[in-house]
Specification:
The structure is a homohexamer.
Chain A (H helix, E strand, L loop, with lengths): L1 E4 L16 H6 L5 E10 L8 H5 L5 E12 L5 H21 L5 E3 L2 E4 L2 E2 L1 E8 L2 E9 L22 H24 L6
Parallel strand pairs in A: 1-2
Antiparallel strand pairs in A: 2-3, 3-8, 4-5, 5-6, 7-8
Protein name (chains A, B, C, D, E, F): DUF366 domain-containing protein
Pfam families (chains A, B, C, D, E, F): DUF366
Organism (chains A, B, C, D, E, F): Thermococcus kodakarensis (strain ATCC BAA-918 / JCM 12380 / KOD1)
Chain lengths: 188, 188, 188, 188, 188, 188
């Protein structure tokens, strides 16, 4: 799995990066990948993937987020997508633990002291699993009614370092998952 | 996903429970399931799933363990098996955190202060994903050279309660994973 | 598999309900489902699924039909979709038999005395199997050249009861199919 | 789908024909096939596929049966296997209806006046879907406690003709299922 | 696999024939198929499948080509699509060898003396594998910078015969591939 | 895809290397791989994969062969296995062409002047595609009735070099196939 961390510019997330081959189209990265960048979040209704959000006319917004766009081509299946997403979220919580931040994970949501730190969605395109994870840098520009928190409030001020640490952690996790899947014989 | 916690008797784990339909054959449980029981662990060579262990002639042993036998029929694939296994291990670490135990997860292994608390394997049968997780109750009967630890040393003395808490946590995790996989539209 | 029978209002079928997650978007029903409702049928050309109909510029129309919209997420495959469709049609014929109606099934079409009682299509979306079955309540508004018949002409006058009986029968059939798929060991 | 009806000799069914490639190994028939033959039925415990039967130590026996051994290579999945099985059983009931026999189908079982006419199992090998259907010619040699009936008691005395009629009906059904699966465009 | 060679008219290729069911929609051919025709090539940007071409703003053009449109429904997977494509290209090189033309294959490209003879793309729709192969009849109308060659320059002047020979060769190859896949037992 | 060429010792092929994870068990190679070695060939009946050979009681033997054992974990499907096998055979013919040897490929068999140079089989295990290709070094110890030829008779005397050239060619071919499968968008 390839890792690209975009540090030299901001990229806003409007939901369109969830489409297949986004990393290849935009950065020439072929195959399984994680692209991490920083920017606003304002998901257009027509790009919303979570039908529950659509049904409730939720807004998905934040002024400043670290974004993870993940694509995996090995297996096209929504149950696998949802499982990998929860594992990646759990891994991010473990890294936050190393920063001394105590998190609570509820499925694919990260909370700190009851405040929401992240958003995430996982689905399939006809050729891949696609995932977006967004972590608030600051809790600004969040939809009303959401009690949010950001990395800065938690003392994680070196955002570039956080992007690197978490990026490496997720790539290592996936590579371990894949390696282990190849070394087991099948059971009767 | 159905949960069965066997409390009225000990069951030793020799590796054969990794075969497909073990929960249905032995307890009449149909479909996705977690069966939790307590007993010795001594995996016969012919039941070993991890070829790395076989290559190194490792022994897999413990005098007293909590065992989780998990079967999922939704998707037969080793990458999915390996992903779900890591997620379940991460969830177990989170529950241990609620007990005040600080763990370190390395893939599918749980460590506490550098000592190994658990063993695990995940693979496929021709009709299902199968998984075993074993957590030491006490660090006795462990193969030489492995620096192990058990629940009792960590202050988790009510093993029945631990089996219940973790069983419910894993079932809830899986149900959340599955539910989320059904509520997302596909991406272009 | 969940069952929803819409009795308090009419819903016309224009073909768009064949899209994935229609039941979740419109009724909040997650996962495998059958939604049954009553209303006109007039399938827009751009929603037509059967390319044979498109090639022959067929019209798909009826003034009053019982509609079944079925979605199954377990397996995304057109051969499975087509098989399940024929089984559901056969089951509907069996229920009609309990009403004393003697039917002839030709694949996915139901005939009574050589007159066409039903229409049906089964296909896949990228995440599910989707199916529509429509049964004429009255043989009115049918495209010219089609010799049709409706439930009322056959003495099935309590349409609400018919919707319930058939709905339950299809759900029970699917649940039996699924249960049986979980209790068989694999063959060499 | 190829059809072979063995008329020149009796073949007893002991369960081993459920293994993959049985038709190719024994008759040189490549690919999807139905082989129909007549003989005793006495399934060895080690060949039993239905774990429910195994759990209840059921016997599967009959002195004289028409046997259908079906193999489909298009899609290896137990849910598909179970669905196709029910469709084939429904089709057999329709053919029996043409003989004037009124049947009741319960999943994969055929009853006439509350008496059991048939047995069936469907599963997968690692490369195919496999199915066995057995229909009593006479209700002799049936395990105790099973209230059975046979074709002869139902007035179906020309067993060769019955084998031909049903064989053709099942092949036509499968071919229709397959053809229909190829002529539908996918839905959004 | 069905073969249709269109000889009575020219058909230009603009890329839209890569969509699923093109052969059924246009010629009523159901299932696996190769349709061969002759005409210009000028692929519209919105129909381009190769994202590498899109990224480089390449033009895909030729004044006169033999086109092969292939669709396979047996298995929907891009790795299979890419493998079958390379096999078909290798087979075309073998047929050219019978014409006395010495080719060099680089993946899915055919070269003669360093000059490009062909273009090709292989991908999936949600229900099938789709492939296009185009072979220059004459090296005219080719994008600047591409050193191309055509069948006529190579002495293959009877284009109709070439379409027939290659069409039969590809169909035979696929049928052999399929037949062989059905006659092997699975390995432990 | 990893390549291992065993040069320091002879390994005889008795058919057991067709089992899954043979490369990992014996050489510690994880994931997609080609292992090339040299030795006798004498396939035990119980290891024979081609049921056609079994039906005809064929012997599979040769005194001295170059053997290729290939395993691919990306996609478990016999049609894909059979396709990849033919592509690899075609690639080997191309390499032989570079040696000045004119071959004729018939599916998965290589002939030179009507004499058989190779044997091959491709199938699946429950977790992988497996393939064996054997090329005669000398036409000795071949079953009666088979008109065979070997590399030495064809002037390919540096067998080590041949093992290297062909090994690299097959790995490059597979890597190209895989890379191409990742760079194409899906078609409607």
């Amino acid at each position: 799995m390839e890792l690209l961390i975009v540090k030299d510019k901001r990229i806003d997330y409007d939901g369109s990066a969830i489409q297949s081959h986004w990393a290849y189209r935009n950065f020439g990265i072929l195959g399984d990948s994680i692209v991490i960048f920083r920017g606003k979040c304002d998901v257009k209704v027509e790009e919303m993937i979570d039908i529950e959000d659509l049904r409730q006319s939720k807004e998905i917004k934040s002024h400043d987020m670290v974004h993870y766009i993940i694509e995996v081509f090995d297996l096209v299946n929504t149950l696998f997508a949802s499982t990998l997403q929860k594992l990646f979220i759990a891994r991010l919580c473990e890294v936050l633990g190393e920063y001394g931040v105590k998190t609570q994970r509820k499925g694919d949501d990260i909370y700190v002291n009851g405040k929401k730190l992240s958003i995430s969605i996982a689905t399939v395109s006809p050729v891949s699993v696609k995932m977006h994870i967004g972590i608030n840098v600051e809790a600004r520009g969040i939809p009303e009614g959401v009690d949010a928190i950001g990395l800065k409030e938690l003392g994680v001020t070196d955002v570039d370092e956080f992007m690197e640490k978490t990026g490496k952690a997720l790539v290592e996790e996936f590579n371990k998952v894949k390696r282990d899947s190849l070394k087991v014989r099948w059971a009767q």
